[in-house]
Amino acid sequence: MSNKTVYILSGIVVIVSILLEILFVHHHAHYWWQSLIAFDVFFGFFGCVLIIIVSKAAGKCFIQRDENYYGGEDLDD
Amino acid sequence: MIEFHPAFILILGALAAAVLPRRLRQFAMIAAPVLAILAVYRLESGTEWIYPFINNMDLILLRVDKLSWVFALIFCIMALLGNIYALHNDNPRECGSALLYAAGALGVAFAGDWFTLIVFWELLAFSSVFLVWFSKTPEARRAGMRYLLVHAFGGNLFLAGIFILAANGQFEVTSLTASSGSAFWLILLGISINAAIPPLHAWLTDAYPEGTITGSVFMCAFTTKVAVYALIRIFPGTEILIWAGVIMALYGVVYAVLENDIRRLLAYHIISQVGYMVAAVGMGTDLALNGATSHAFSHILYKSLLFMGAGAVIYSTGRRKLSELGGIYRQMPLAVILYMIGAFSISGVPLFNGFISKSMIISAASYNHMPAVELLLYLASVGTFLHTGLKLPYFMFFGPDSGAKVGKIPGNMLVAMAGGAFLCTLYGVFPALLYNKLPFDASYVPYTWDHVISTVQLLTATLVAFWIYIPKLGGVPTISVDTDWVYRKPVAVFMTWLVAVVCNIRDWFGVQGNVLLKKVVPYFNNPFLLVGGKTPVSGEAVTADYDENKYRFPVGVTVLFTVIVFVITFFYIMMI
Q1: Is B261 strand, coil or helix?
Q2: B69, B156, B263, B531: least buried by Cβ within 10 Å?
Q3: Do A44 and B457 touch (CB under 8 A)?
Q4: Is residue A58 one of the residues assigned to a domain?
């Protein structure tokens, strides 16, 4: 699938879901954000970006090592 | 009505699978879990098997209530699916240890006293390690050894806690939430190791990806979910678990971004998913505990399906790294579809079983007025879809062609995957089938406009963000350092150093002792030396080298003595 198709389809789904949300959803909000329209779209998008950026940064700084870090395949017992 | 303990059926099945020839083994591998499922259905709440044991203690081998029943049911279903997946496996001992492992899980679920519980708890570790070792690679041998040591350590903590309880006359498995003191903490730590709560989780992501293709499918289902069962039974409402669970849910997500090994990526998502259950146990309300139970039920189905999918890829291509896979979807379309059903389930897509259980836990957090917990668990479900639903299938099946040669996948593997996918969908479409079995008294409606639309929005937005970041998300050939670093690097170096130091000290004393001996021996030999005398004594020269053969008995003498002692003993016994 080309990038364009994915973005257009996602856009359609999001717009339809927002319309349905406005028409049908009676929010039983415990907190203010639960009554915001399309809150989940923003939460999903920015949450995803945040996860990728934070993990990649943590990976570069502390976590990722060369595949032979623990001795790789030439282990001797 | 005659009742059978399902665990004993599986133990018999394990013995049969380990010794019988191929055809009969395959029959036993199917028959044992099917009979166990029937046995579970014949058990009624309140059934107990009590046997008197030492010190006024009763062994309660079987105690059925709604909680143990629903866990036993899913363990048996899992044993059946896992065995179908492993039918082509020609290693009888591996098939036997898998069934024994499932029996351990069932035994824990039905155990009514601490002693029975710990015996089956240990059986889990000692049977499952073979599922790693049968990979027969150096990595698997070492990862299996670490797995065993960590579990032995955790089991001993648990056992120590049980000793303290037993010393106080408390033999039956009960909730310890209200108690405190060393028994509470020892048992909580012991279970936390099995539940893979960071920083005690590294055994999981270390060993599971090294297991055999069919063995890992069993492993991903049992150990952590047995620990969740134990937490629900023993520690409901222990508040520290709420945050432990939230940390778990996000920890797995962060590591999954970086992971290149397909089964290790899935293993990090076990930690993430079990985090939901642990957090729910910490909340402790009826709805939350139902959520933990149902999510464990769903998780076993979809996670084993995902491991089966990854196993099918490894089986047919011989490759296990994202950076070496891609572009193989045309050669294994059925496996792709079935894997995607598992991926949709774990991501909580409506109409699949993850949706009906995960949303229950998140709602429970909301009803408990824990906004931070709710949002962070919600964030973790973004990560779940990102990795298991998008990144892994994209780079494993689709993505740039890797040129991997795809072999044939055995039919039984696909049948097992189809069975898992069917159940994932069945429970997703008809949640009442699962909700009716839940042990606690709380009703929940998953399919509301609110839930469904929120989920659709969340997942679509995740998809868009993923698509933007695709170039950055491909597998890179690195490994991720986790808390197992502690015992694989500094502790390993320390142990090597310690052994070297001790060996050096022993050698030094040995050498110096010999020097001293050489100096002293002449004086014993010739006391005149003490007064300055120099006359050498007659007979053996002091300087002659020691030759041990000079002092040895011939073998015949030893035999003679043995015979004499035997004859005397024999006649003595005969005389009495």
Answers
A1: strand
A2: B531
A3: yes
A4: yes
Judge whether B461 is closer than 8 Å to chain A, CB to CB.
yes
For B:365-384, CB contacts with A below 8 A are 366-367, 369, 371, 375, 378-379, 382-383
Under an 8 A CB cutoff, do A26 and B450 touch? yes
Q: What integer is the mean pLDDT of B436-454?
A: 91
Q: What gap in Å lies between CA B327 and CA B146, rounded to an integer? A: 35
Q: Is a pLDDT exceeding 60 seen at residue A73?
A: no
Encode pLDDT of B99-133 as tens digits. 999 999 999 999 999 999 999 999 999 999 999 99
The count of CB pairs under 8 A between chains A and B is 149
Q: Which residue of A has its CA nearest to B386?
A: A48
Cross-chain residue pair B458–A41, CB shorter than 8 Å: yes
B231-269 pLDDT, tens digit per residue, is: 999 999 999 999 999 999 999 999 988 899 999 999 999
Give the pLDDT confidence score for residue B247 in this predicted structure: 95
Q: Are B47 and B112 in contact (CB under 8 A)?
A: no
Quote the domain boundaries for residue B561: 490-575
pLDDT per position as a tens digit, B503-545: 999 999 999 999 999 888 888 877 888 887 765 555 555 566 7
Residues B82/B83/B88/B90 CA torsion (nearest 10 deg): 110
Let me know if B286 is exposed, middle or buried by CB neighbors in 10 A (0-12, 13-18, 19+): middle
In a domain, B245, yes or no: yes
Percent of chain B with pLDDT over 90: 77
* Cβ <8 Å between A55 and B258: yes
Residues in chain A: 77
**For chain B, what is the domain count?**
2
d(CA B204, CA B267): 7
Together in a domain, B303 and B444 = yes
Q: Report the alpha-carbon distance of residue B258 to residue A54 in Å, rounded.
A: 11
Among B456, B480, B504, the domain-final residue is B480
ipTM of the complex: 0.90
Residue span of the structural domain in which A20 resides: 3-26+36-63
B475-498 per-position pLDDT tens digit: 788 888 888 888 888 998 999 999
pLDDT of residue B474: 81
* pLDDT at residue number B460: 94
Are both B508 and B400 inside the same structural domain? no
**Same domain flag for B465 and B558:** no
**Would you call B280 helix, strand, or coil by DSSP?**
helix
What pLDDT score was predicted for residue B537?
Answer: 54
> Is there a domain that residue B31 lies in?
no
Give the nearest partner residue to A64 out of B375, B456, B480, using CB atoms: B480
How much is the pLDDT for B194? 95
| Burial of residue B316 (number of CB atoms within 10 Å: 0-12, 13-18, 19+) | buried
